[in-house]
Each structure stands twice: as C-alpha cells, then as structure tokens.
Write a structure and sequence with these properties.
alpha/beta; single chain; 46% helix; 260 residues; four-stranded mixed beta sheet; globular; 2 domains; six-stranded mixed beta sheet
Length: 260
Amino acid sequence: MSYTNILSDFSNGITTITINRPSKLNALNSATIQELHDAFDNANEDHDTKVIIITGSGEKAFVAGADISEFADFSEAEGGKLAAQGQALLFDFVANLGTPVIAAVNGFALGGGLELAMAAHFRVASDNAKMGLPEVSLGVIPGYGGTQRLPQLVGKGRAMELIMTAGMIDANKAQSYGLVNHVTTLEELIPFVEKISGKIMRNSPVAISAAINAINAGFENGVDGFKAEILEFGNCFGTEDFKEGTQAFLNKRKAEFPGK
C-alpha cells in the first residue's frame, strides 16, 4: 500500500512505520491519522510482523503535535467528534493492538505526538527528545488520551503539573518519571529498539498478545484485571504456541513458535 504522509517498511519480522512530514515537524493531521491507522492495521494482520516500531522522519521531531490549522475554527460538537474519532481510529487502536508497538521517540513529541507515543506499548527516546502536552496554552486540553495515559505512566501529581504548566521535559527526566524505558543517542535509537524487538521475537506472539490484553484490562474502568489474566492464561493452554513452548522446554531445545 502506498502512503502520502508516512512510510511503512518490513524487515526481519519488524514493520517500521515512519511519520514522514518533516516540513511540518511530522505534525498529525486527519489524513496522517487515517494512514497511520491503515498501516498499523496492515502490520497487525501480517503474520510475519512480530513487532511494530513507530517513529518520525528526520532528526528534529517524532511528532511535534497536531496540525492546529485543521481545527482552529471548530465548534464544540466538531471538537468532541475530532477527539472521539481520533481516539477510536488511532490512539486506542494502537494501545489495544495485539502486536507489540514500540515508540522510538526522536526529537520533539508534543501534544498529539506524545499521546501517540503513550499509546504505544512502551517508549525509547533519543537524548535530544523533548516531551510535553502544551494544549492548555492554546485554550484546550489533550484530547487523544493524554489526560488518561500520562497519569497512568508518571502518576497523577506529575501529570497534573506537566499538563497545567504546558511544559516540556527532556529525555532523561522522562526516563526518571517512567515515561520512557530507555534513552539512547539519536544514532543508536533505531538499532537499540531493533535489539529489544529481537528479544521480543524469541517469544510466543500469541502469549504476548494475551499479555497485552491482560495488562490493558487492569487499566479499564469496571474491568477486573485479575479475571482478565485468568481468562487469557487459560486460553493460552489451547494454543499451538503453548504446546511448542512446553515441549521445547522439556526437551531442552529452542522453541520455534508457530504463532497459533
């Protein structure tokens, strides 16, 4: 599939999706959000894709925010629809994807950019990265899940401060807050994320998908995460990956998971 605003490349079990609007610092507009949805959906349906990496083109920005010119004149109803559609189409979609998604944050991740990074299953940042949710400086709040995911990752107090001050933090502070897992140089960012991806790909993709479901369940209102874990745990016993994994362990050989 060809895209206008993004690139999607597959190699060695990894699909790398790159937001490719460098002249706009990779800002998210409606067309880019739709293309990202399609690319994530295609990668998730591809049996050969075991890990998805999301990053930005160039050295300055992962995603510098949303394309404000698209919604500056929106009404209340249009604003609500924008948030609802964006969350369903991309941000919640990514968060609940069965294929692991790693955000390789290269440079600025602001507003919708940080919200996209937070929707990924975890994040690695280059040492030049800057992160923040500056929406209140525009008279609005984060609308793509930022008010929910940031407190989950860094705690309520830090999230309140970051959102209310519209401030930015650097990569090292983001790591100390638990917002990113690792910090690397810009040059080493993608190789480092690919190395982590290699470790993930040694394991059962079916079990990983089940783990994502169980972990996410613990953050949903009205859902008992422990019950979700029990259900996913039991389901694993009916998979070919479980049979292969246990037999490989008992026979002291490397498992070759079929992903079924």
